[in-house]
Description:
Layout: H1 3-13, E1 20-23, E2 29-33, E3 45-49, E4 52-56, E5 65-69, E6 73-77, E7 87-91, E8 94-98, E9 107-111, E10 115-119, E11 129-133, E12 136-140, E13 149-153, E14 157-161, E15 171-175, E16 178-182, E17 191-195, E18 199-203, E19 213-217, E20 220-224, E21 230-231, E22 245-246, H2 263-274, H3 283-287, H4 319-326, E23 332-334, H5 340-348, E24 353-358, E25 366-369, E26 372-375, E27 378-386, E28 390-395, E29 399-404, H6 405-412, E30 418-421
Organism: Pediococcus argentinicus
Amino acid sequence: MNKLVKYIAIAVSALSIGSIVMISSDNSVNVIASNKTLHSQYRNRYHREGNKLYYFDSNGNAITGLRYYGNNKLEYYGSDHVQYRNRYYRDGNKLYYFGSNGDAVTGLRYYGNNRLEYYGSNHVQYRNRYYRDGNKLYYFGGNGDAVTGLRHYGNNKLEYYGANHVQYRNRYYRDGNNLYYFGGNGDAVVGLRHYGNNKLEYYGSDHVQYRNRYYQDGNVQYYFGSNGDAVNKKEPNKPVVASSKVLGVKYISQEAAGAPMGCEAASTLEALHYKGKATNYDLKHFIKTMPVAKNGNPYQGFGGTPFRVTYGIYQSIFPSALTPWVQRFSSAKNISGTNEQGIINSVKDGKPVVSWITLNYRTAVWDKYNWGYGVDNAHVVTVDGYNKNSFHIVDPENGVYWISKASFMRSYNYMKFAVSVG
């Protein structure tokens, strides 16, 4: 060590920690400031100066921008290095809000005059999307606020959110003289609605309930009174009994899927699609989920394969095995043995009926198998409507049509197999 360095070292060693020194040209050491504060550089730690909070990184630099830390926590430091608190920050099309502790908010946030917004687990504000909290559904609009009131969307669809921002389901909403009803999926009802003890009401294409006016449905005319219920014109105090209904189940072709023996699966998928279930399946992929009975017993599963005709095997599946299969996708009930009115009641409740009949409604051809007797010319269709004299059929082999109730029931009564879906 040279003489100068030694001198400085000796001189400085006598100073208090934190002293600021100036070395003169004659190598003398002069103390110009001294205190007891430790002036070591901050690294990986916070520093508060009044109401401003800073964070210094591993290089000792005060950070700017987003900083993730802990268990999915996030904070933000502006260009002045000060932490954001109780304010927004936008990063491109992402919006964050940092609360009073400096952390980015997640979950629901109430603010202002009954306003509500939501931030996902990534701390980004929801916009133009839904959020479900248990059995409560919210929708956040283009400005990030939860919607209240009526919301039109899609192809003439309508939903309603109350003052608490929660979507209405299975309940009415009155807007002046207009009455709406929102169903189990949250959409405002259009068309005829059966409810209560054989009561009936009607909602127009604008979703508003009819009152004191007529509605014509094909050959059937209804009159809706001052309370919105359909009434009998001859007996004004007696509710009218709806004599027709068609659910509108969409046709699925078993032949187009290469499944000449796939009427059970096709009819089932038709009904499921109507209920909004299994919509990610086409017929070919849906059949792959069907239970198969290796012993060929249709009470236990499908015998053989639906994709080709195999002689000597009874290629079908009966309600005892089909119902649990359907229940993997939707609620369903084995209503085998039911009568004409039972089928009508199911459709009236919005539940299509998968029904076992004979192909082209011809006389049954019976044969004996190791599991019992079966109808060799059996066929399966979906019943989705009725009127005074007919059933409306969605047939995976022959398309969509009306068939007289007499013809249908004569064919159905051979086996009396049926499954109500929904």
